Amino acid sequence: MKASIISIGDELLFGQTLDTNAHWISQKLSQLGIDVFQRFTIHDLADEIKNTLDKALDNTDLVIISGGLGPTQDDKTKSTLAGYFNVKLVLNEEVLRHINKLFSGHKAGDLERNKQQAMLPGNCTVIPNDLGTAPGMWFDIEHQCVVSVPGVPIEMKGMMNNTILPRIKTHFALPVLIHFYLMTAAVGESQIAEMLQDFEKSLPGYIKLAYLPGQGMVKLRLTAKGEHKIPLLHAVLPYFERMKSMLGHIVYSENQDDRLEHVIIRKLKKSGNSLATAESCTGGTIAKKITSVPGSSAVFKGSIVAYANEIKIALLGVPELLLKTKGAVSKEVVIAMAKGIIRQMHSDFAIAVTGIAGPGGGSKKKPVGTVWIAVANKQEVHSKQLSLPGKRTQIIEWTSVIALEMLRRFFMKHFV
């Protein structure tokens, strides 16, 4: 089964509003096993709506239209759909009662304008809008469906979750989908693809592997599509276990919502240990990631953003001579920072980072992107030098992710 999404609105085309609706709808349809075949973004013009609807219905079974249902003159979706299906707009008493209730106590002028929202194409099934005045519309065309929803995200999501998605499930014969996820960090997509090259070739046609890269991480999704859940689960599970075994220690979680900081906080809580960070080039980004996890206060002692050398000396105890002879971006200094933050915060584990994020500050010997990371406990320190490409924000993000991944792997030596 295939679907098309049509997003209507000049503000989307002009870049004034980000089209989060199409992204969200695509995700929800994909979860049902529906292939989103094409997406359109168009002006709120009758001819464009009609022409685009023709294209969508030529290729797909389901069309979802978002936007253009407001009470103003520039919202033309409803009247255009009535013309497209050759029906008249008729008053829907139930929608009118809902609007009257919403506008109880408001100015009569506001109510009169919004009463027009109760005029709907005579052939549509009304989709209630509990959060606004514009109802959604469902049109059946032989074996195809057209659904129109408001562009206001909270209203659209309410309709989709409460009415449209459940109706799609009963209206169409949908496949069974099973998803398995592996989360990896600090390893590039191309490197993982090379590791899994033979594995991908071995997959049967009903199982697909998707690479979903993010900043410093790659989410792997193994999806099986079939008719019956239990046999499908038994068929795909050996492939998933094989993929997990091939990737080994680079996998940090099987939960697609897990970030590295979630895993680290859980490890610290389980072991009863604490963590602190000493950050230079990342400017507190690592601490921010850690403290974004609810309950992190139970294990995170704090952070010192030692940007200036005098702060490294005064608060972390980095020897001044070391900074002069080795430079702030060096193995010796980052190790001293890691030991200093453990001493200062009385923590069990530490992350320390120092580097040149750019755009200035680099040299021939230490160009922009040169970073040193150390992870430590009270007995040992592991350090690593990086040469990172990209702009300042990318270097900071990559440094933060790699530092967290280094700590996770450091934990593997100390925790079961």
Please estimate the helix content.
40-55%
CATH architecture of the largest domain: 3-Layer(aba) Sandwich
Structural class: alpha/beta
Strand order in the sheet with the most strands: 2-1-3-8-7-6
Properties at a glance:
6-stranded mixed sheet; alpha/beta; Alpha-Beta Plaits; Molybdenum Cofactor Biosythetic Enzyme, Chain A; Maf protein
Description:
With 416 residues, the protein is α/β, with parallel strands linked by helices. The protein folds into three domains: 2-171, 3-Layer(aba) Sandwich (Molybdenum Cofactor Biosythetic Enzyme, Chain A); 176-253, 2-Layer Sandwich (Alpha-Beta Plaits); 260-414, CinA-like (Maf protein, Alpha-Beta Complex). Helices cover 43% and strands 25% of the residues. It has 16 helices and 17 strands. The strands form four sheets. The chain has a six-stranded mixed beta sheet with strand order 2-1-3-8-7-6, sandwiched between helices. Strands 14-13-15-16-17 form a five-stranded mixed beta sheet, sandwiched between helices. Helix 3 packs across helix 4. The longest helix has 23 residues, at 392-414.
Task: Give a short overview.
With 416 residues, the protein is of the alpha/beta class.
Topology summary:
Elements: E1 2-8, H1 10-13, H2 20-31, E2 35-42, H3 46-59, E3 62-66, H4 77-84, E4 89-91, H5 93-102, H6 108-115, E5 119-121, E6 125-127, E7 136-141, E8 144-149, H7 153-171, E9 176-185, H8 189-195, H9 197-202, E10 207-214, E11 217-226, H10 229-247, E12 251-253, H11 260-271, E13 275-279, H12 285-291, E14 300-305, H13 309-316, H14 320-326, H15 331-345, E15 349-355, E16 370-377, E17 381-387, H16 392-414
Parallel strand pairs: 1-2, 1-3, 3-8, 13-14, 13-15
Antiparallel strand pairs: 4-5, 6-7, 7-8, 9-11, 9-12, 10-11, 15-16, 16-17
